Amino acid sequence: MTDTPPRRESTLQVAGEAVALLAGVVAAVYSLGGLVLAVRLLSDGFSVDAVVSLLGLAPRELVVSAGLVQALGPAAVMAIGAALVYGVTDGPNPRSERDNDRLTQPPHPARTMFGLVALSAVLIAPGPSVIPCWPRQGDSWRSSAGGVNCPGRVAR
Fold it and tell me: Which residues contact 128 (CB under 8 A, 6 or more apart)?
């Protein structure tokens, strides 16, 4: 048997992969910026057609900076905060051998299921209170904090 020498990647191949990675990161930031701007415009009452037109006319720098500042910036701050907490508390506690690591069998299935149902109910509960105040064609979005009182709604 002959041993084959380890395959060495060429410098050009490594550079190509680095450029491809950089292009992927830029595309992700650009997509995040477009998503941030689209959600902001839609929540201000613009129609979907207007949002698409405005995003198509927006300069690249605006979309990329929105992605960096409003999407990746808070994520970086949270990551730094988590790193500081782990640094101060000596990281996560190591698990002992007797701890249950199987995701299919939680230690207290009834409590786990109740907690998940309760969390879902808390997260879903505000939705129906906002639906009656959803803006129709020609209306403005003027609802109270709870979404119950809609003074901007004109009776038809």
Answer: none
